[in-house]
Amino acid sequence: MKNETFATRYLLPIALPVLVVLTMAAFIGSIALSLLFNTHEGSLMLAAVAAAGILFTVSLASGQDRLGGPKRGVIVLAAFTPLVVGGLVGLGVVGGVADEDRMINVQPLMVAPDDAPTIAAENSSEFCIGPAGACEPITEWEVTPSQLAEEMLFVFDNFEAAVAHNVVITDLEGGADDPASGATTYGASTVIEGIDTDVFRSDEYAWDDLPDEWYFFCAIHPNMNGVGRLVDDA
Predict the structure, then answer these.
(1) Coil, helix or strand for 83?
(2) At what angle do helices 69-91 and 40-62 cross, to 10 degrees?
(3) Strand order in the sheet with 196-202
(4) Dihedral in degrees, nearest 10, Cα atoms 103, 107, 110, 115
(5) What is the DSSP string of 133-156?
(6) Alpha-carbon torsion (94, 100, 101, 104), positive or negative
(7) Backbone angles phi, psi at 227, to 5 degrees
(8) How many CA atoms within 13 Å lie on the side-chain side of 57?
(9) Would the pLDDT of 164 be above 50?
(10) CB under 8 Å, gap of 24 or more: what pairs does 179-182 form?
(11) Which residues does residue 187 pair with via DSSP β-bridges, in sequence order?
């Protein structure tokens, strides 16, 4: 009896609000993820259906003093059906939406580690390493083991206003005379028009896949090129 009284008086008043908050957080997070990995039109439809389901659930719940099993089932169905449908659409199980048509905002939200390999373009002649205004020209891009993630991730900065640059990493087969003819392209940042930053992550290659030396160049200005090497940590 004492245990029941203690649970009723002390545990339930704490546990129930916490459970409600966690459920709301999971509900809102699921909707957010479904919207993120959906098309623009699909997101609008999902938001409308989810809003209708929430309103219906609240209306049904508030109009009943006591809810039996079937009515509770209807409430759960009304609340979570939009999430299930949105999740299936987001995963591509329903609808067959092409990846390029989705509002996938993972790449812009990607945050590189502070020590991730970084390379920059300060002018249209050569790459450099360092902050804007103090970027040291390089023809050798040295990367240390401590900088490497499991996937091939690096940061490319364009410091030159109104000029497009990118960086492409290939093997040395093509060389300076014909850099685009490298047999293997390990990674390439997006082309950046003007001052901006791109964090690139290769889905196909890791740093371990690179040979001891590789070639890097700008696809817009092939004269900007050099050799990359994996070197020991200082």
Answers:
(1) helix
(2) 170
(3) 136-138, 127-129, 118-121, 152-158, 196-202
(4) 180
(5) TSPEEESEEEE-GGG--SSEEEEE
(6) positive
(7) -115, 130
(8) 17
(9) yes
(10) 179/215, 179/217, 179/222, 179/225, 180/219, 180/222, 182/215
(11) 169
- Cα(43)–Cα(185) distance, integer angstroms: 35
What does the alpha-carbon distance between residue 221 and residue 25 come to, in Å, rounded to a whole number?
48
pLDDT per residue over 61-117, tens digit each?
655 555 565 666 666 666 666 656 655 655 556 655 555 555 544 444 456 777 889
Q: Can you read off the two tokens belonging to residue 199?
A: 């964090």
How many helices (H) and strands (E) are present in the chain, helices listed first? 5, 12
The b-or-e profile of 199-216 (16+ CB within 10 A means b, else e) is bbebeeeebeebeeebbb
pTM (2 d.p.): 0.54
Q: Which residues of 97-122 are buried (b: 16+ CB within 10 A; e: fewer)?
A: beeeebeeeeeeeeebeeebbbbbbb
- Structural tokens at position 112: 């590189």
